[in-house]
């Protein structure tokens, strides 16, 4: 088992950027995938949707995983795809992710680009993906490392046989612990603002919740200060009781790598032991890797991308 890992951000169908990045990192073509003599690639999820070469992105990553050259965790887009294509048992035409216009649109590029058999094959594979990994002192999860919630999801995956209809039956019930766990771990924890306070998201939809810097302690923070993103959030104290986890990600915990947050600009760690590798390749940004060689304090110098 290698001790040197390249953690690679959200791909969203940009297979070309992935090939260039892997070659630049010293990987060489191996079957449909790539291999490095003494490093392993760790993918943070969100291989699909949006980009031009979704089937190829899946093929490269899956080949590498099957060959032991990579590990991948589930992203919210893979999770949504599985739910979208899993029928609610005992119903006709009802799916664990509703086929609404909005949900369809988010998944459209994948629906357009994959044949029925490719799609079925991809969904069957996504059902088997881990929700989070920890190996050789490094952690990878799509949006947020939350110990209790990851344990909760893993227990359910074990008893219900991976991401099956059985699992979704429970996990898609709004208000259930499992639903909250999936939302927080794969999409990032959010907190509700007091009544009357709203922001508008990128699509102009009003919302009364904000995504938070889960890796930082929340004590004494305001909504604006604890918010993760660039929205115009009110600078008022966080209401008591809305936070599940006040402490943030412990500074002595193993380094954790996430994707998901559509960051821009020059890559830099979010905390000494927290890195986001998503620099928005699907929105004109770049596909980024972090080259990890065992360090417990993460450094901006260890990001790598192709110009
Ligand atoms: Mn995501």
From TrEMBL:
UniProt key word Hydrolase: yes
GO molecular function annotation: bis(5'-nucleosyl)-tetraphosphatase (asymmetrical) activity; phosphatase activity
One of the record's GO cellular component terms: cytoplasm
Enzyme Commission (EC) number: 3.6.1.17
Domain Calcineurin-like phosphoesterase: 5-155
Pfam families, per the entry: Metallophos
UniProt entry keywords in alphabetical sequence: Hydrolase
Cross-referenced InterPro entries: Ap4A_hydrolase, Calcineurin-like_PHP, Metallo-depent_PP-like
Annotated protein name in UniProt: Bis(5'-nucleosyl)-tetraphosphatase PrpE [asymmetrical]
Organism the protein comes from: Crateriforma conspicua
Gene for this chain: prpE
